[in-house]
Each structure stands twice: as structure tokens, then as C-alpha cells.
Amino acid sequence: MNAYEQKVYEELNVWRRNVLKKSGLFKQLSKKTQTKINGWIPEKAHNIITESIKNMVKATLVGSDMTTKKQQPTGQTLYEKDELLKEKLISYRKSAVIEGAGTGAGGFFLGLADFPMLLSIKMKFLFETAAIYGFDTRQYQERLFILHVFQLAFSSDAKRKETFYTLENWEYEKEKLADMDWRTFQQEYRDYIDLVKLLQLVPGFGAIVGAYANHNLLDTLGETAMNAYRLRLLTTQPREY
After folding, report:
1. Under 8 Å CB-to-CB from 186, ≥6 apart: which residues?
2. 88 pLDDT exceeds 80?
3. Cβ distance 234 to 5 under 8 Å?
4. How far is CA 113 from CA 120, 172, 215, in A?
5. pTM of the entire structure?
6. How many C-beta atoms surround the C-beta of residue 151 within 10 A?
7. How far is the first Cα of the chain from the last one, in angstroms, to the nearest whole number?
């Protein structure tokens, strides 16, 4: 392990502690409220929402794969991979901010369009991240890894701990995974972003909220993705295809 990798290893230990620590009181109360609200929603409605988000994510995965470069050339150091990812994050974050401000300024109906558009930006970013760190997204298990990184970034305390364990032990855990738990996936994501995205629908206020929210959401995803792949690279090397 060289000096930079040792530095990254120390950063990963700090990140791990942050991921596993308990959320603040506000987030805990928000989660409890949203869980209660989810209990009031009819099962049929939950099934419709779950299928809608499942289909949206799967369509985004296919589209992202088609528009993303495959694995980066071999021979790059971890430092070079990290720096390239940081450059990509700036670009994707800029797109998300512009998109959030635009849809937020458009009122209620245009604000609703932010959900699939932002989801597409996030998925494309994750595909780029996988390529930068040398993993082949044509492989089904690599797409599952991407979905788990996404879930780690946008989930409650309990699910975040469970997902972190899965990613930290990916080489073993991936053999037990057949597919995502789509019901949990969509509920965790919705609960994470519901409050701030509802504010985005307020006329005259939505543009500011949309830009700020999307900036922070991409930052959260960027930090999570970079550290998830760093962790994986420092414990195992990707196969060559």
C-alpha cells in the first residue's frame, strides 16, 4: 500500500464511522412520520409506486449503460481515478443544479418532472464511476452494486447499516443476491428526499430549493460512490474483460 492508498484507507475509516452513526433527531423524527404516512397508503398504491420506480430505474440503467464509456484503460493509479471522478462529479452536479432550478421555477407540474430527470443524472454518474474504477457494467452483478451504492446514499439508519455491510462484504454477499428489494428501494429513496422535494413544488420558491437540493444530493451520491469503489479496490481488484 503506497502513501496515497494509506491516506485513502484512513479516510475510509472516517467515512465508515459517519455512515454507521445515528442520524440527527430531525431526520429520525422525519423518518418516523414518513413511515406512519406510508402505513396509511393503500397496498395497491404502494404496488403501483413500486412498479413505477422499478421500471423507471431499470429503464435508466439501460439508457445509462448505452451512453456511458466502458471500463477506463488499465494502469491508472487510485489517485488518478479519484481525480477523474472528482472532475466528473463537478460536471454532473452542475447539470443537476441547472435541472433542479429549471424544474423548480416551473411550478407544480414541471417540478414533478424533476424526479425522473434527477434519477437519470444520478444513474449516469454511477455508471461513469464504475467505469472510472475499472468495473464492467455489462455484468449484472455490477448493476446490482450500483443500485446498492445508490441505496446506501439515500436511506434510513437501519437500511444504511445493512447496505453498508453488503457493500463491505460484496464478494461474498453478491452471490446471495438475485435482485433488488424494489419495495424497500423506492420507499427509502422517497422518504429520504420527500420533504425537500415537496418544497421544490412551491411556486416562487422552488427554483432555489431545487438547485440547492440537487447540489447536495449529488454531493452525497458522489462521496458515497467514490468511497464505495475505493473500499472495493483496496480489498479486491476488478476482473479484466
Report:
1. 49, 50, 53, 54
2. yes
3. yes
4. 11, 38, 17
5. 0.79
6. 24
7. 25
Phi, psi of 195 (to 5 degrees): -60, -50
CA-based nearest residue to 98, from 208, 197, 211: 211
CA distance 4 to 40: 51
Average pLDDT over residues 191-208: 58
Cα gap 182→184, rounded to integer Å: 5
- Among candidates 187, 197, 201, 217, which has minimal Cα distance to 37? 187
- The total of other beta-carbon atoms located within 10 Å of residue 145's CB is 23
184 vs 108: CA distance, rounded Å: 27
Q: pLDDT tens across 97-128, in order?
A: 887 665 544 444 444 555 677 788 888 999 99
Long-range contacts at 188-191 (CB < 8 A, ≥ 24 apart): 188/151, 188/154, 188/155, 188/156, 188/159, 189/53, 189/150, 189/151, 189/154, 189/155, 190/34, 190/49, 190/53, 191/30, 191/31, 191/34, 191/35, 191/38, 191/156
**Cα 191 to the chain's mean position, in Å?**
14
pLDDT digits (tens, 9 = 90+) for 178-199: 778 887 887 787 777 655 555 5
What distance in Å separates the CA atoms of residue 101 and residue 231, rounded to the nearest whole number?
34
